[in-house]
Structures are given as structure tokens and as C-alpha cells.
């Protein structure tokens, strides 16, 4: 599943400069090791302190349970989210929602903002069951109270991404298309929002193997990102990587390598190597080389990606896990099953330290380990790994599902 899904939180006008500044620092920092981390931590702490002072001011001026106080709470929640403190973010969003739900004079935009931000928090934490009712409320609110005004596109986009991430591509499509149509219909709209919608819709087409439609979306989105943000911006890089994925899936490997190499050069020139975007580009180019059986350059790129990810002080645990998985596949294709298994074991340890649990990813790693262990003539270890897959997928999908049935079948084959 592509990892480059984006929506943009709705930010209160009276406080947007501070929140936007921190979000920008979180999303666009080059994260080049310990030297950059303390200033960003300091900015987070100062922003949260200022936000809490603003909350106290709103409570004193308008009342503890006022819509203005709820608006300030929502902004604090957003700051905590981008600081990686999801527990505090949820607490502030929930408090804000409780206020706007019971206060008649709450402005429609305040209610909508809290709903979308809380739903996005849950979606980002992979708590899909919690995200769905919240985002459905936001979507209903956008359709009725906001009457599909421009800000309603946020709810359509968020609900579309929620369906996408659950592989409900047909359900996601009309929602993502509506978000795009709303944004394209607004005069003087921020073109970046259109590019985000195009990129998300392109990914939905890509997963359905609707390659011409996906390519059109990616090309249009990439042109906007390049014009507005430059070649090295994280959003530009993400969209370029999506287009490169399409090229690779359609066996246009040379086009994929050319695009990834050009994007990598622009990113390295502007920001150096020690950032997650550069690591991602090395990783993806390594995958392309691996797909065309050029193992030497694949290994060079993947090891470089691993070195960068490892240098980022745990800030890219997902990147570390992904690169270790790719290196494992490379060793498996080369016939070194023991080393492939060792790399997956290391990937599981990285996963264990991740702040956002993902049973689906864990299950995939355990499943690959199981078959590698079987190739090494270790059926007992393989059975233990596949049993763990069954437990994780049962928890994720439910007992009476095709996924779990396939897992049971795998275990039966070992008996």
C-alpha cells in the first residue's frame, strides 16, 4: 500500500500562523541528526506553551466551555499530533468535540474542524474503526450544514483516504473525485490542494491497475507541486515517487530510474543526503534495480537508504523497517535465506519500537519469515511464525474472513 497519503488539517484562522509554522517544521525539516533535533523540540515546546496560554485567555474571556476555548483546544491537539504525542492530541480533540457538541452557538466551521482533525488523528494512528464514525459525521456535516462549500473537501478527502487505506478502492473513488471537483471549482484556490487531491486520486487508480488515469493524475499533480514548491519539496518528491511506482509496475523501468535519479539529484543538491526523502528515493531506486535483477546497484542504494534512516535517531522507524524488508528480499533472491531471515528479525525489532502499531505490517513480516524458515528446513519455527500471522490477522480482519481462511490453509499445509 502506498505510504504517501496526505490531507491537510483545518487550522483556526486566529492561531494558524503558529500551528502552520510547527507543522511546516515537522513535515519539511531535513532531520539531519541530533544537531537539528533540539531546535525543533524547542519550537514544539514553545508553541505548545503559547497555545496553552491562548487557551487560558479564551477560557477567561469567553468561558471554560465556550466555542472559542474549543477552537484553542483543537489547535493544541494539532500541535501535539505533530509532536508525536497522540495521547495528548486525542485528549484535547475529545475535549474540544465535547464542547462544540453541546454548545448551540458553536460555529459550523468550529464543529467541522474538530471532527476532521480528530478523524485524521485516528486515521493516522490506523484506528480505522474509531476514525470512521467521526469522519462520517464530518462528511454529513460538509454535505448539509456547509452545503459542499470549499472546506467540505477536507471531509471528502479524509473519508476517501480512510476507504483507500482499507483497500475499499471503489468506495474511495467518488469521495476523492468530489474533493477534487470542489477544489477545482473554487476561484483562486490554493493549487497545492488540487495537487494533493490529484495525487491521492492517482494512488487510488494505481491500486486498481487503472494506469492511464493514474498517470494523468500524477503528471498533473507533479506539475503543480514543482511549480509551487520546487523539485525538492517533500510533497513534490512523494508525487514523483508515485509516478515512478507506476512506471515500474508498467515495466517502464528506465523511465522510473530516470525520474528517481533526477528527483534524488534535486533533493541532494537542495538539502543534502541526511533526510527521509533522500532515503526514500534511494530505497525506491534500489527496488527498481532489484526488479530488473541488477542486484549490485540495488544493494548499494538499499544500504545507503538504511544508513540514512539509521542516522535519523529513530525518527523514521517505518523507513528502517521497509528498507530492511527490501534488503531481506534481495538476499532471498540471491539465495541467502539465513541473512534474509536475520534482516526480517531486525525489522520486527524496529517495528516493536514504533509508536503506531500496525498488525497488518507485522503479519506480513512474520509470514515472510515463516516461508524463509521453511526453506531453511526449520518447520517448527515456520509454524510459530505462521501462527503469529493468524493471530494478528484475526485481530485485524476478524475470524470469518478470507484473509484468516488463507492463514489457516497455510498452517494446514505445514501439518
Helix content: over 70%
Helix and strand content put the structural class at mainly alpha
What is the fold-level CATH name, i.e. the topology of the domain at 1-26 and 34-135? Serine Threonine Protein Phosphatase 5, Tetratricopeptide repeat
Major β-sheet, in short? Answer: none
Could you give the distance between the termini?
A: 32 Å
Using the coordinates above, name the CATH class of the domain at 1-26 and 34-135: Mainly Alpha
Quickly count the helices: 19
Computed CA radius of gyration, to the nearest angstrom: 22 Å
Strand fraction equals under 5%
- Reported CATH architecture of the domain at 1-26 and 34-135: Alpha Horseshoe
The number of distinct β-strands equals: 0
Mean pLDDT: 85
Give the low-pLDDT segments: 8-40
Provide the CATH superfamily of the domain at 1-26 and 34-135.
Answer: Tetratricopeptide repeat domain
Order of helices and strands: HHHHHHHHHHHHHHHHHHH
Mass-distribution shape: globular
Notes on the protein architecture:
- With 415 residues, the chain is an all-alpha fold.
- Among the domains are: 1-26 and 34-135, Tetratricopeptide repeat domain (Serine Threonine Protein Phosphatase 5, Tetratricopeptide repeat), CATH 1.25.40; 358-415, no CATH class.
- The chain is 77% helix and 0% strand.
- The protein has 19 helices and no strands.
- The chain has helices at 16-28, 37-62, 67-82, 86-102, 108-124, 128-144, 153-165, 169-184, 191-207, 211-229, 234-249, 253-271, 276-291, 295-311, 317-333, 337-352, 359-375, 379-397, 402-414.
